[in-house]
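lol ok so funny story. i was supposed to be doing the assay writeup but got distracted and ended up predicting the structure for this chain instead. priorities right. anyway since i did it might as well share w the group, maybe its usefull for someone
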Amino acid sequence: MRPPRLSARLRLTLVGLHLVYGGVQVALLFPFVGLRGRDRLKQRWSRSLLAILRIRIDPPDPAIDRLEDGLLVANHVSFMDIFVINALLPSGFVAKSDVSGWPLIGWLSRRNETVFIERGKRKAAHQTQQRMLAMLARGRRLVVFPEGTTGAGAEVLPFHGALFQSAIDAAVPVHALAIQYVDAQGRPSAAPAYIGELSVADCLRNILASGGLRATLRLAESFPPPLPDRRHLAHRAHQAVAASLRRHPGDGLSQPCRNATAISP
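and the output, tada:
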């Protein structure tokens, strides 16, 4: 006899409790474990969150496991992308400065190797560049979403080249990743898309209403140093990600979505 399925409301409650649990881990355990220990904690926490939301990760290509360092660049569908990547490749992330002020999430981000971008200020941009460079020079993986916004997943927007400069200066590889979410029928799903005026809670409800999703993370292409200039590098990475998604087109988006500019987490 199958156990009863948890209701969407209960799963949302579990998400909130899991977020608090993450805060407890960061406060009580992070100060006493090294970087590898923190990576393991982030990985387990992310996998548990995805399980609560009924998002199953497809077995990754073995090449994914070998990405020990470098700048990871990916298309951006949802804030869930962070947890999909962390479930397979615990990493630091580049995020807009607004995230640092979010209740609890901002506090967690500041203690999880997040580099914040303050847009519109040249001095702040230089400081961000230096923080990214320092992290990459230490041999850490750093993730950026160079589209600068989230989308429904049907199209990859052009990549901004400025975020690639730190990898060029640090002489580390750039790995282009393709993220895709599909429903139970294997069709690309826009349910996780965090776009328009959608709130985080509404996005989570869309995910739960989908009846279960599969997330796929593919290595589209790696670019070892010496790297080309950032404009050409961004163009080549964008082409690689878009081509990877075209090779797995499915049957079209399975969920309706709002066609509007998104906020990038």
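Residues 162 and 187 are 33 Å apart (CA to CA). The two ends are 41 Å apart (CA to CA).
back to the writeup now i swear
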